[in-house]
Design goal:
2 domains; alpha/beta; Rossmann fold; 5-stranded parallel β-sheet
Length: 239
């Protein structure tokens, strides 16, 4: 889900990122928010513009919604298809979130969750992504953007907040993930130690933009309204 739009940072660690998320707990926490919002708006069709490994998209599809799930990473979508297939009403599309959403009709909702928007290389890409989301939504529909509250991160040393030993297709690994802030930019750090046949260590880093709801609202074209949701509406969700 967390992919650098410009360089596909972490693209070769798709299974690692998926393994770090407690998906049953996360989806159970977030599900009531989405059910309430979708019922209020009358959502029947939605587009997830940065679907990652497809966990949210599959949950929405299980609610009998028509879902188009897009991501810039083919590897993410390969894993999504391997988990959920591609049944009627669930479509996987390789596409960046700042590219036009192709569909015969507009959607009732557009989503960009999991802090994906903060991985944009600059604010111009963020603005284009918001414009594409809003252009894909019908009048009276909703756009939901979920981002990390960057300002709660310490300004300085990395905080290592997840460490897990697990078995992936390539063998046994130890995974550590941390976050930190340097001024108005945040960073996600990932270290993977392969434990099969000796220890080898890989590390990668991704930069995060500091995005806030008022700023995102100002970017919304006046003729299309304002984004309909933000990170503060999603209980229990985290980077």
């Amino acid at each position: 889900m967390e992919i650098d739009v410009a360089n596909n940072v972490f693209d070769d660690l798709t299974e690692v990122f998926d393994e770090l998320v407690d998906w049953p707990t996360r989806l159970a926490n977030e599900g009531p928010f989405y059910r309430s919002l979708f019922a209020r708006i009358g959502v029947r069709r939605l587009v997830d513009v940065a679907c990652g490994t497809g966990r949210h998209a599959a949950m929405f599809h299980s609610w009998n919604l028509h879902v188009q799930a897009a991501d810039i990473s083919p590897r993410m979508l390969e894993l999504a298809r391997s988990h959920f297939g591609e049944p009627p009403g669930l479509h996987w599309v390789v596409r960046g979130f700042d590219e036009p959403v192709e569909s015969a009709e507009r959607f009732d909702a557009a989503l960009c969750v999991g802090n994906s928007l903060a991985l944009a290389p600059d604010m111009s890409v963020v603005q284009r992504a918001l414009q594409q989301m809003l252009a894909a939504v019908r009048n009276g529909g909703v756009a939901v953007v979920h981002v990390l509250n960057l300002w709660r991160l310490p300004d300085g040393p990395c905080v290592w907040h997840k460490c897990k030993r697990t078995t992936l297709p390539q063998g046994e690994v130890l995974i550590a993930r941390g976050v930190h802030r340097c001024g108005s930019r945040g960073y996600v750090e990932l270290i993977v130690a392969d434990l099969t046949g000796g220890v080898s260590i890989r590390g990668q880093s991704a930069q995060l933009l500091g995005l806030e709801a008022p700023e995102l609202e100002r970017m919304a074209p006046p003729s299309r309204g304002r984004p309909g949701g933000c990170s503060r509406g999603l209980p229990g969700a985290a980077l």
